[in-house]
Amino acid sequence: MTAHNSTTHTGTAAPATRPAAPMTMAAALNAAIRDAMVDDPSVVLFGEDVGPLGGVFRVTDGLYAEFGETRVSDSPLAESGIIGTAIGMAIYGLRPVVEMQFDAFSYPAFEQIVSHVAKMRNRTRGRIQLPIVIRIPYAGDIGGVEHHSDSSEAYWAATPGLTGVTPSNPADAYSMLREAIASDDPVIFMEPKSRYWSKAELALPVRTAPMNQAVVVREGADVTLIAYGPTVKTAIATAELASEEGLSIEVIDLRSLSPFDDETVSASVRKTSRAAVIHEAAQFGGYGAEVAARLTERNFYYLSAPILRITGFDIPYPSPKLEEYFLPTPDRILAALGTWEWS
Amino acid sequence: MPHDCVMSLNVESAPVITQPAPTPLRLIDDAGLAVDPSEAGGFALPSPEILLGLYRRMVVARRFDVQVTALTRQGRLATYPSALGQEACEIAAVASLGALDWLFPTYRDSIALLTRGVPPEDILASFRGEWHSGYDYYQHKIAPQATPLATQALHAVGLATASKLKGDHTVALTLLGDGATSEGDAHEAFNFAAVWQAPVVFLVQNNQFAISVPLDKQMACRTIADKAIGYGMPGYFVDGNDVAAMYAVVSAAVDTARNGGGPSLVEGLTYRMEAHTNSDDPTRYRDSSDVDAWRGRDPIERLEKYLVSVGVLTDAERADITREAEDLAAATRECMTRTAVIDPLELFEHVYATPRTALAEQRDFLANEIAEHEAAAAKTTGESA
Known about the structure:
The complex is a heterodimer of chains A (343) and B (385).
Chain A: E1 21-24, H1 25-39, E2 43-47, H2 63-67, E3 72-74, H3 79-91, E4 95-99, H4 110-117, H5 120-123, E5 133-138, H6 153-157, E6 163-165, H7 170-182, E7 187-192, E8 199-202, E9 215-218, E10 223-227, H8 231-244, E11 249-253, E12 256-258, H9 262-272, E13 275-282, H10 287-299, E14 308-312, H11 323-326, H12 330-337
Parallel strand pairs in A: 2-3, 2-4, 4-5, 5-7, 6-7, 10-11, 10-13, 13-14
Antiparallel strand pairs in A: 1-8, 6-12, 9-11
Chain B: H1 48-73, H2 87-95, E1 102-104, H3 110-115, H4 120-127, H5 137-140, H6 151-165, E2 172-177, H7 184-196, E3 200-206, E4 209-210, E5 213-214, H8 227-231, E6 235-239, H9 243-258, E7 264-269, H10 288-295, H11 299-309, H12 315-335, H13 357-384
Parallel strand pairs in B: 1-2, 2-3, 3-7, 6-7
Antiparallel strand pairs in B: 4-5
Helix pairs in contact in B: 1-2, 1-11, 1-12, 2-9, 6-7
C-alpha cells in the first residue's frame, strides 16, 4: 500500500439523491461501498483482486481508479492476512471493508475471525471496537467448481460477537451494506452469488428496513416460509405456485442471521401456525435447526405441525452438473409441506 | 542501519538482502566486556547512561516476574508464563519504542507491559481470572496480550500500514516466540509487511522451546533471522541476552521503519529459564545442565559486570534500583489483597456495540437466577440464626 499524499484522489461527493435506474445487486453493492468511502475517509477497501480488476464479481469495479491505492488495494493472496491486518487497521481507527473472494476461501481466516474479530470487544471490555465488514460471496447455483458454492453461515452465526447479515435483493444490498460499514460491530456480510445479477429499479441512496430486522416480503395466511439470501427467491416462487393451488404462503426474508429477529418471525408463525425454513446449506447442525428450535420453544402452543427444514442434503456441495438435485426447489418445498397433516 | 533495503515490486530492481551473520551479534560478551567494534556489525555500543537505564528496568522487571511466579505457586493466580532470562529482549523492545508507537505482545510479555507503564494490577487482571484482559490499550499503546500464536503479528502489520496510509510516523513492534514462527500467520505477517513496506518490527524471542518442543523440531533453517531474506526484508541474528546489542539493533529497526525503510525481523537468541507455565514440568524434556549453562549467560549479571567495570553502577545506584524493585514487589503483593468485584451481568455488556434483545433476555435470566439464589441463601441464614 502506498502512503497518503496530497495528490491522492479521494473521490467526488456522492449526490444526495439520484434518479431511479435499473441496477444489479453487484452494482448496488458497488455504489454502497463508493458512497461510504466518499462519506467517511476512514473507510478503506482491500482484498484479493479488488483493485484494478474490480473483484472477480466486479463488485469493486472502478473504486481503485476513483480512490487510488491509499484507499483501495490488492492484498497478497492470504485470507488470514487480510483479516489480521484489517484488525490492526481498525485498532488504529480505520474502517476496513475486506473481501473473501469465495465462501470456502474464508476458511484460512477462521482463526482471525473467530478468535479476534468476534472476541476483541468483549476481551477488552468495550475499549477496542473492530468496525470491520467482511464481505463473503456465498452459496451456489452458479455452476461453480468445488470450494466456490459453500453456505458457511452457520459457522458465523454460531459465533458470539459476530453480526451476520445477507441481502436477497439490490435495494437491501445497498442499504444493508451502508449500515454494515457504519456499524461499530464487525459484520459478516454474505452476498448470495446467484443474486448478483438480479435487477431492481433503485433511487440511491435507498434505505430499507434496519439490517437487524426480518421482513415479511409476501403476506399469507396458511404457512410461513422462512428464507434468506439466495432462497428468498425460491420461497417467493413457491408461494406463487402454491397460490394457484389455493395455499396462502407468507414469506419472510430474515436478512439478519445474527441477531435473529424473533419478534417478526414469531408473529408470523403465530398467525399461520405452520412454518418451514429454507436454506442451501446442509441440514444437520445447520442454521435452520436454530430457527426451528427457537420458534418451537417460543410458539409451541400456536403450532399445528412440526417446523420443517427444507435444505441442502448432508453432503458436500455437489459439482455443477449435480447441483440442481441438491438445491431446494419450489416443487421440493411444496412436497415437504404436503407431508404435514392438513385438517 | 547497515542495509539499504528499499523493496519494490519490480524484482529486478530489488536490492539483494544480505544474509544475517551465522553467529549472534553481541556488543557485550558473557564476561561483561565490550566486544571489539570491528565485530559489532556496524552497531555502536549504547552509552553507559542508556545501559544503566536498561539495567534498572531489567532488574525491576525480573523482581516483578519472580514475585508473580511466587504468587502463582501459592495458587493465587490461575497461571503466569514467566519471562525470566528474557529481560534483555523484553526491555530492549520497550525501550526502543516512542510514546506513540504500538506494542503487540504475547502472554509471555507481561514485563514488557510493566516496563511500558501498565500497573501490576491491570497486568494481573487476566492471570487472576477476572477478565480476559485488563489494561488501557489506547493509553499505553499496547494491544491485548495475544494467546493464539502469531495472530498478533498480523495486527501489528495492519496497524503499521494504517499509520502509513494516514501519513503518521507510528511504528508497530510485535513480540513473537520461536514456536510462533511455524504458524501460517507468521508467514503472512512477514509477507504482508514486506509487500506493503509496513513500518513494523518483528522481534522473535528465540527462547528455544515451544512448551517442550525444541527449535530443531520447528524449523530446518539455520536461524530464524535467515527467514527474513525470503520475504525481502533485513533480518538480524542477535544475542538475546545482551541488552546492549538488542537495544542497538531493535532501535535501529524502529528508526528504519519510522523513516520509511519498511519492516525488519530481529531474532534474539535467549533461553526460557522457567517452565512454560506453572503447570509445565521442564525436567521431562530438557537437561538441568543446559539450564545451568544458560544461567551463566544471565542478561542482568552480564550487564552488571560491564556497568561496574565502567564505574556507573555505584553502590548508591544499586541500592536505589533494589528499593524500586522491592517497592514494586510490595505493590504487586498489595494489589493481590484487593479483590475486584465483577458484576456477572457485565458478561453481556461488551459483546456487541449494538444492543441485542436475545442477550438482554439472557442477562435478565441470569439476574433473576442470582437474585433467587441470594434470596434462598438469606432464608437459610435466617433459619439457622
